[in-house]
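In keeping with the milestone schedule agreed at the kick-off meeting, the structural modelling team has produced records for the first pair of proteins. Each record is given below as a sequence line and a structure-token line. The laboratory manager (R.T.) confirmed that both were archived under the project's standard naming scheme.
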Amino acid sequence: MAVFRLCLSDGGERVVEAGRAVRTDSGRILLEDTDSLGRWELLESFEPSRVAAVYRRGPAEGGVYTWVPRPDTGRWWSY
């Protein structure tokens, strides 16, 4: 499990615990987790126009935990 922070275009924020976050080719942000059989299932989906930035909680340089930004272009996934 990981903790993700989504900064929304309307100025709001969402902090979500999920198994992974995905940015698709179209820019859509998906938050997914596994079911009891280990299959990935969708928890939430966000249109690209709704999301200004995505961060994952994790260690930065020096080992201090902080919000690490995810790329705002291209396809990616983060666990």
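The second protein of the pair:
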Amino acid sequence: MGSSDKKFIIELPLKVVLTENGASNFISNNKKLLRFRLADNVDEYGISLNKFSPQSIQSMILVDYISKMEISMSEFVSSRQEVMDLSKVIVYSLLYKQFDREVYAALIQCECVTKHNRANPSHLIDEKTKLSDRQLKSTLQSKENIIQQTRKNILDPIWKSIMANKDFTAEEKNIYLLMSEKFMNRLGLMNWYIITLFHKSDGANEMFLAIRNLLNSYMEKSKVAEYISVMVMELALNNENTNIRKAARNMYQGIDDIDSLIYDPEVRAKIVQELQRNHELVFLSWKLGGGSTSIGKQGRLSITLYNKSDEFQEVKENIDNAKSSNTAKKTLIDFYRELPEGQEGTDLGLYYLSYLDDACKKVNVKFESLVNQFTASDLTVITLNFNF
């Protein structure tokens, strides 16, 4: 579960679409932005990476620099682990951000903050309070000991509860201990400003309890990251196999047993080369939240997968006309059930989907899946929407 913190490099052809803040930061640091076209035929500005560290992506997400990411490849099998790692990094990053927001919302409702606001109407601490990072770092610089001690006070009861839980395996205990630390390590400066301001007040325990409750909630929510990464990979492989079967039928006409053919490593390699030559790609994108000012949308994640050839305009028209008569809109369950008999992975896809759906329901993560199929261009667009 801790993949987002490993010190390694992910090698994937990643297009990163920047937010307004992200673009301004890059431009002010004399870094040139690229203009590129995404799978939905929309031109965006951002950066293109072939190698990157998970930490760099996570850092940019945490400061609201990224609005969307996209990778496109003819085959995903050889990059399975990298795609899953990237998916988990994205989900964890959104959870860390959402945890930080909810902690702030809880702290400003605490009695000690309410009392402060009544006594100091000209220095309110509420949802409109804005202090720059420079101000906050300057204020907190002399309070490192208080922060470390308070952090320990918050975490100690949680750690004792984890270690005392007989239902957890040793590995599960380690995972929970690690996750609790990760969430606390990513608590924002504004939250620590409030915590250090009131850590000795009568209402300090109310603050600590609120943080512990949210910490327990988000440690549970973090379980869905693994399920999402597996589901995304299953869908990517499903799309990849669809393209490979289609190409195999064109390249090896007259052969009945296409399935045995495409699982021959040498033949598969030739088919993948043909797909690359024809620019037959599977596209996978992650759209993050609704921006820092979009109330209620910050915790959203939309993951979209689709196959597409070079006919960009046709694809755009199909997507723009998603509600027209040539489009069949259904749930992901319907999509799997209607795959042709013998299609590889159908049962596995439903199995993963069931686990993902159950995992989301248990931790109050809203999840919906949608499939648009465009008969004119033989295009399938699968969207997974989450609200953390």
